[in-house]
Amino acid sequence: MALSKSMHARNRYKDKPPDFAYLATKYPDFKQHVQINLNGRVSLNFKDPEAVRALTCTLLKEDFGLSIDIPLERLIPTVPLRLNYIHWVEDLIGHQDSDKSTLRRGIDIGTGASCIYPLLGTTLNGWYFLATEVDDMCFNYAKKNVEQNNLSDLIKVVKVPQKTLLMDALKEESEIIYDFCMCNPPFFANQLEAKGVNSRNPRRPPPSSVNTGGITEIMAEGGELEFVKRIIHDSLQLKKRLRWYSCMLGKKCSLAPLKEELRIQGVPKVTYTEFCQGRTMRWALAWSFYDDVTVPSPPSKRRKLEKSRKPITFIVLESVMKELSLKASSLGSEAVEGIVVVTAWIEKILTDLKVQHKRVPCGKEEVSLFLTAIENSWIHLRRKKRERVRQLREVPRAPEDVIQALEEKKSTTPKESGSGQDLAQGPQESVP
Fold first, then answer.
1. What is the pLDDT of residues 234-251, one digit of tens each?
2. 184 assigned binding-site residue
3. How many CA atoms are closer than 13 Å to the CA of 222, on its beta-carbon side?
4. For bias kind Basic and acidic residues, which ranges apply (predicted)?
5. Bridge partners, residue 155, by sequence
6. How many CA atoms are closer than 13 Å to the CA of 76, on its beta-carbon side?
C-alpha cells in the first residue's frame, strides 16, 4: 500500500508525485530507463540500480537545480525520503518560525557519496553543514558533488577515522554550537540481516526497490541499534554543543529500546516521527538537552488530536421506550418516561460495569454524564460469561445415590407438610 499520503505536509512530492513521462521527454539519460506499457503508462524498474540512480539525479536537477554523480557501488538515496527528514529537522529547530537570516548549523554523520542531506538543506534553507565520511570513495564523490554545485562555502566535507561519530569530528569545532545533527545509520548487523534472512517477516512481500550501498553504509557492529546508542553516548558528553540530536531508523523495533535508553540516561526532551513515502516507511528519533526547545508531537499523538470524533449516538425506538418504562415501573422506579428512563438504565449499566459517573450541567432537554473508568471492565464480556458457565459446570456433583435419596425425600415432603398443618391447628372436634 502506498504511503505517500502520509508524507510530511511540506514535501513537494506529497500531492504531486514525479511525472515520469514529462521527465523522460526532458532528460535523455532518464528516458532510457523508463518503460511504457500497452496503456501508455510510463513506469520505472526500481530493482535496477541504474534506473534508481537516474531518477535521483533527475529529480535533484529538475526540482532543486542540483547536479550530482553517484557510483553504483554506493548507496543511492531516494529524494522524497531525504526530503521528509529535512522537513522534520526544520520542525525541530523551528526553522519555519525563525528569522531566516540566522545561519543554522548542522552535522551530517556519514554523508555518503551523494552528500544529499547537506545539498538539500543548504539549497532549501541556506544551512551550513559539517559532513563527515569514513569511506574513501564516498568522501571523494561527496566533495566533488559539493564543489560542482558551488556550495563549498556552506558545506564542509571531512574524512574521519572508522567508528568516528561526533566526539572526534567536533575537536576542531570546539567553539561552535550546532543546531542539529542528522544520521542515516547502517541498518544491519551482518550480511544475513542485510539480505533479510533472519530479520524480515516471512509474510511481508520482498522489497520493491534495489538495495545498493557499501559495507560501511549498510552494516555496522550491532546494527542500527548499537550505532545509535553510540551517538547517544557521545551526546551525553557533548550535551548542549548541539541543540538537537537525531537519527533515522530502518526498523521500527529499534525505536522502543532507544527511547528507553534515553529515558534511563535522563535525557529531558525526546520525540520521534515516521517518514512515509511510496511503499517505504522509516522512523526517526530526536533528543535534546535544552529546556527551551519546542518538541514536535509524535505522529501517533498528532493523529489522535487531528482525528475528528463523532459523538456516540443511539436511536431508542418507541417500542423499546415502552419496554424500559414497564421495567422501571415494576422495579418501583420513578423514572418511567422519556429521556429520564433511558438515562436511568444507562446509569444502571455503568454501575454494573464499575464505571464512575456523575451528572453535569447541560441543556433542559438533555442529560450529560461525566464518566471515569477505573478499570477496563467492559471488554471480553462474552468470554467472561462463558468462563462463569464453565466454572459452574465444573462444580463437583453429589454421588448418584445421594441425589436419588434427595429426590425421594422431596417427593414425600408435601404429605409431611400436610400433617404438620393439621398438628398446628390443634385437636378437632369429631362431627357425628
1. 999 999 999 999 999 988
2. yes
3. 8
4. 401-413
5. 129
6. 23
- Please provide the average confidence, as pLDDT, over all residues in the chain: 81
282 labelled binding-site residue: no
Query: Is 388 flagged in the annotation as binding?
Result: no
Paired sense of beta strands 42-44 and 105-109, if any = unpaired
Is a pLDDT exceeding 90 seen at residue 429? no
Q: Which of 172, 148, 169, 151 is nearest to 160 (CA)?
A: 169
Higher pLDDT, 120 or 316: 120
Report the alpha-carbon distance of residue 219 to residue 194 in Å, rounded. Answer: 8
Residue extent(s) of CATH 3.40.50.150 domains in the chain: 4-306
- pLDDT tens digits, one per residue of 415-428: 444 444 443 444 44
Q: Is 82 annotated as a binding residue?
A: yes
Residue type at 108 in one-letter notation: D
Question: What is the C-alpha separation between 51 and 181, in angstroms, rounded?
Answer: 30
End-to-end Cα, the chain, rounded Å: 103
Which of 62-67's residues contact partners 24+ apart within 8 Å by CB, and which partners? 62/23, 62/26, 62/27, 63/12, 64/119, 64/120, 64/123, 64/124, 65/123, 66/119, 66/120, 66/123, 66/149, 67/148, 67/149
Strand partners, 44: 34
4-306: CATH topology is Rossmann fold (3.40.50)
The pLDDT assigned to 120 comes to 98
Q: Which of 402, 338, 397, 349 is nearest to 373 (CA)?
A: 349
Tell me the pLDDT tens digit for each residue of 96-117.
666 777 899 999 999 999 999 9
Per-range mean pLDDT, top range of 45-54, 310-319, 358-367: 45-54
